[in-house]
Give the backbone structure.
Amino acid sequence: MHPTVPPSPITLTVEAASRSYPIWLGSQLLSQAGERLKGLLPSAKLLIIADTAVWEMHGETLANSLTAAGFTYHLLQQPAGESTKSFAVLESLLEAALAHGIDRKTTVVAFGGGVIGDLAGFCASILLRGVPFVQIPTTLLAMVDSSVGGKTGINSRQGKNLIGCFTQPHAVLIDPSLLATLPQRQRLAGYAEVVKYGLIADADFFGWLEENGASALASEGEQAAAAMLHLIQQSCAHKASIVGRDEQESGDRAWLNFGHTLGHALESALGYRGTLLHGEGVAIGMVFASDLSTALTGLPASVGARLRQHLQAVGLPTSYQHLLASDADLSVANLLNLMGHDKKAEAKQHHQGTLSFVLLDQLGQARLKKDVPLALVAQQLEKQQA
Ligand code: GLY
């Protein structure tokens, strides 16, 4: 039997102000990682920072591919989970990398989801004042969002992602076949970020997702794989375009925070214990921001209705009512307070009676509104407290 020759990957380019780099996207691409990276990186030495569970499942494929292409690697493993994005873990990784004797031409390879990507990218950005790094994302969320665009960092006691920097990778290699081993709940959470691109930038893509999203997520087989590839490609193209226009989030990149203001507040109130995944919070937050948009920008209520219907159809939450029974403080006052402290909300105006929100003017068109009245936000939250 002849081994199947994988088709050439799709290549997208991120043209960020600080660096241009490829996103390679293709099924079974992990086994071509070595070949792809050869010639792109300054030396054959790699430091792989991997999610322990991912390495167990897919490490051999990556290792074989790298070794066959002449790379040598040192492996550091960490479990996934927000608590991994800490000073303590950062310190242990940096010390281990230095003790191993990395040099400035050693490339850090991030192999895992968003937590590992953010952490490994931050390690790369400060080790020896900066070494190259490559992202090999293994969750849908990391494939469509966090691996592209160069945000790296760890969490602080004061909040999520408050310590870090923008450092673009040298390449992003996406193999959607790795999603076969991703739990469905995680896959859905990543899908919320996919829906976001339709809402903020591409009405046609949103329509396509309404038609095809559920089957891409639920089924196996060639058609589902092709749909999954398409939705990842579209998402990465939107992300690349936005990052190309605004690498450091002084303008359009803020649109990517659509749904995140309430989403982050809920995650923070619930304590990052897995009760609510990031993408689930984003799904709830996107419905909330659509309702605010209807009140403030004249977004037709039908857009919010379509959004609710689509999220429900795929199995994502549209409100936080089901979480009210938890022991977390989801009172209006606490959520308003947390939204006021969210870095992404630019919400320093909190004390002036307003909050910043990314809103929709219409389906596929977003804008940052910095003076959303707190009273209106409180009123919308009250509706979910019933
Ligand atoms: N995840 C949002 C951003 O990269 O800007």
User: Anything to note?
Assistant: The first strand starts at residue 10 and ends at 15.
